[in-house]
Amino acid sequence: MALRPSTTESPLVRRILISTALLVLSLFLLLPLTAVFAEALRRGWEVFLASLHDEVALSAIHLTLMAAAISVPLNTLFGVSAAWLITKYRFKGRAFLLSLIDLPFAVSPVIAGLVWVMIFGSKGWLPPTAMAEALAPAARLIASLAEYDGFGWLLADLAAWLADPKIVFAFPGIVIATVFVTFPFVARELIPLMESQGSDQEEAAVTLGARGWQIFLRVTLPNIKWGLFYGVLLCNARAMGEFGAVSVVSGHIRGETNTLPLHIEVLYNEYQFSAAFACATLLAFLAIVTLGMKSLVEHLSGHQSSGHK
Amino acid sequence: MAKRRVIPGFGLSMGFSITYLSLIILIPLAALFIKAAGLGWAEWWNLLTTPRVIAATKLTFGASAAAASVSMVMGLLVTWVLVRYDFPGRRLLDAMVDLPFALPTAVAGITLTQIYAPNGWIGQYISQCASWIQTNYQPGGWLGGQVEDLAAKGAAYSPIGVFIALTFIGFPFVVRTLQPVMEDLGAEIEEAAATLGANRWIVFRRVILPLLVPALITGFTLAFARAIGEYGSVIFISGNLPMKTEILPLLIVAQLEQFKYEAAAVIASAMLLVSFALLFLINLLQRRLDWQHR
């Protein structure tokens, strides 16, 4: 029998530790994940499908997709720009800027919603009445333009919003609360990656005469594509699943300003458990896809994503 | 400016980043603080020392600290197993650790409630266990009250439920902070300790654990900071009884629903100040960690 190396434990201890860890993880992580699907299907497929085909559920899904479709690109743009700034240059206040980017992680989701109520709420800095007054000329202009055909359908909506410019307790509020909460995700994923890759290739591109966008598109982007992809994915998962911040600003109007997580809350509080869990499976599925993609990206890029999010 | 910048785009990325950061994060947070600062110190003190706020503060910080501590122990065990041992399913397990990051909080909330409720998958056993203790030992006092609670409600709708949800949320922070540090530990010092006659347990206690302490503290602080602000996963399982199972973020929402904007702003500002202090601490710790790494 070979001698056991001095830097590992006896097989018995090892087995005990592995089984304890497995037990902890399955009770703690696998069980809840299984429970989502089990609860959703408890009353059969028909109930499951019916709860997803429900008109209110569909409008919640639509709203969630719309909010993510606006907030994720915005934060991706910021993430790339901030990562470029932080990793390609050295300047005063760089470390401070880095901490500011992390700031939303330290803010409770509820507070992330509250700040917008403080600005755009009826007692805020820019209450709807003041906004309506300020935007009245624009509203009249757009309304008169909307009377001509062509872009009428588009302008009519805009004119209606400008006449009653609600931000909080309406769709714009949901978007900005989501933007606040998902703000750091792309930047946090890109900064360590771009820092570790250094700027040598970009500098070489400069000496060869490449222009700014050329350098980014042809040199940097291919290097960071997997990290960027994963950052966007994380940002999207959080954007679609955000609950606290959106709950504060949405106003909870059924079929109008309820996103999917808020719809789940309503159903659950009305004891429609199967329907609530049916909607929850969509978000749980999104989480599984996100985790799977993460493993895939790590495998493909060989980079271990560091960090805590 | 001493050094000329070689790579183009400084002005554009600086301008866009700062503008966006200000519009989305800084100005809104400033609005909250200005709103809260509009009230004097006496008002602040009055609003923050109502019994309801004090009860919520105790629960939030107590449950968060307990959850972060348990996460730390569980995280240490899981990270050790993931880094040191090879076994079938290790990669899958590694990916699973991030589930609480990826699973939306509302989904986590309703699921945990369902599991730990008195008729749930785990809750029924907790409830039965507590009933058994109750009938066989009939303990009185504080412990008796706890057992009675557990028998009636499982682990949900009580401070224990809050603790469970917060542990679920905080656990990955510890693993992901600890993992890189543990992977970088060299075998040399362990070999040296072994040649000097230390057994495996002593090597762990005296050699490995001290090297992990900074990462453990960072992981604890991250989990703690996240737990304090957590909302979605807690409100379903806590039952939300004022004075008993109400957490601070929920109290803010409650103030808002009663249109008490000032009170909401003051509680939120106080919470933010604590969170920023924690963030500052995390940054210091992280710097220590990076420095130690080199």
H/E order of the elements of chain B? HHHHHHHHHHHHHH
Which outline of chain A best applies?
globular
How many helical stretches of chain B?
14
The end-to-end span of chain A amounts to 45 Å
First and last CA, distance of chain B: 30 Å
The H-and-E topology of chain A, N to C, reads as HHHHHHHHHHHHHH
**What are the segments of chain A in which pLDDT stays under 50 over at least 5 consecutive residues?**
304-309
**SSE-based structural type of chain A:** mainly alpha
Largest interface: A-B, 104 and 99 residues
State the helicity of chain A in percent bands: over 70%
Q: Based on helices, strands and strand pairing, what is the structural class of chain B?
A: mainly alpha
What is the CATH topology assignment of the largest domain in chain A?
MetI-like fold
Textual characterization of the structure:
The complex is a heterodimer of chains A (309) and B (294). With 309 residues, chain A is mostly helical. Chain A has two domains: 42-108 and 169-299, MetI-like (MetI-like fold); 122-166, no CATH class. Chain A has helices at 11-40, 44-53, 55-88, 94-102, 109-120, 128-147, 152-163, 171-182, 185-197, 200-207, 212-241, 244-250, 260-269, 273-301. Mean pLDDT of chain A is 87; it is low at 304-309. Chain B has a domain at 52-100 and 165-293: Orthogonal Bundle (MetI-like fold), CATH 1.10.3720.10. Chain B contains 14 helices and no strands. Chain B has helices at 10-37, 41-48, 51-84, 90-96, 99-102, 105-116, 123-137, 141-153, 159-184, 188-195, 200-229, 232-238, 248-257, 261-293. In chain B, α9 (159-184) packs across α11 and α9 runs antiparallel to α12 (232-238). Chain B is globular. Chains A and B meet through α1, α3, α4, α5 and α8 of A and α1, α3, α4, α5 and α6 of B.
